[in-house]
């Protein structure tokens, strides 16, 4: 198992956080604090989600601590969007992960996955549907085109990007470059 697999966040939590960032809504999270070794409940104002390579991070203003905090998304056990809205805080503009990221939620991709990957999807708690062509349909949030291309190519032919169609050309280009490099 690679590091990225171990630090994979819940797609449900990631989706809730992405929507809350976009709509500027307060979220109640159940967070495992590794240095304390305990789960805590917090209300946060989520400002940005960021894929830092080995893990996703949430930059938020923690209402409990009354200061900016960075949360590793795979350690968020649950998330619930509250009816409370917030305005962006000036102190959040100085947080490290926000420097080059816009405050918006995830984009969504639709994938078709070979049926032999069903057990893996189920074990990773990834929701899917059964398609008429015998494959599985998956919707996944993403922030970065390169990450999405890597996910599709990492499927080694078992994953097809259906939407957004404009990214398919990136996949073809990167796939050809990989074939050339390893042929």
Uncertain segments = 1-6, 95-103
Radius of gyration: 18 Å
From the N-terminal CA to the C-terminal CA, the straight-line distance is: 25 Å
Please tally the β strands and state the result: 9
Classify the helix fraction into a percent range. Answer: 25-40%
Largest sheet: 5 strands, antiparallel
| Content of β-strand | 35-45%
Give the rounded overall mean pLDDT.
81
Q: What is the count of DSSP helices, taking H or I runs of 4+ residues?
A: 5
- Structural class estimated from helices and strands: alpha+beta
Order of helices and strands: HHEEEEEEHEEHEH
The CATH architecture of the largest domain: Roll
CATH T-level topology of the largest domain: SH3 type barrels
Shape: elongated
The largest sheet has its strands arranged as 4-3-2-1-5
Please give the CATH class of the largest domain: Mainly Beta
Summary keywords:
4-stranded antiparallel sheet; 2 domains; Alpha-Beta Plaits; 183 residues; SH3 type barrels; alpha+beta; 5-stranded antiparallel sheet
């Amino acid at each position: 198992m690679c590091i990225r697999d171990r630090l994979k966040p819940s797609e449900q939590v990631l989706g809730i956080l992405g929507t809350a960032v976009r709509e500027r809504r307060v979220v109640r999270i159940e967070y495992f604090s590794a240095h304390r070794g305990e789960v805590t409940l917090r209300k946060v104002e989520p400002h940005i989600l960021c894929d830092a390579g080995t893990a996703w991070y949430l930059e938020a203003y923690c209402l409990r601590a009354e200061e900016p905090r960075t949360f590793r998304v795979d350690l968020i056990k649950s998330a619930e969007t509250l009816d409370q809205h917030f305005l962006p805080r000036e102190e959040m503009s100085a947080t490290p992960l926000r420097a080059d990221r816009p405050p918006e939620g995830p984009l969504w991709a639709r994938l078709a996955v070979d049926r032999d990957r069903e057990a893996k999807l189920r074990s990773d708690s990834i929701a899917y549907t059964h398609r008429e062509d015998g494959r599985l349909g998956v919707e996944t949030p993403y922030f970065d085109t390169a990450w999405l291309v890597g996910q599709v190519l990492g499927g080694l032919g078992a994953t097809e990007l259906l939407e957004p169609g404009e990214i398919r050309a990136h996949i073809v280009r990167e796939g050809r470059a990989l074939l050339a490099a390893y042929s």
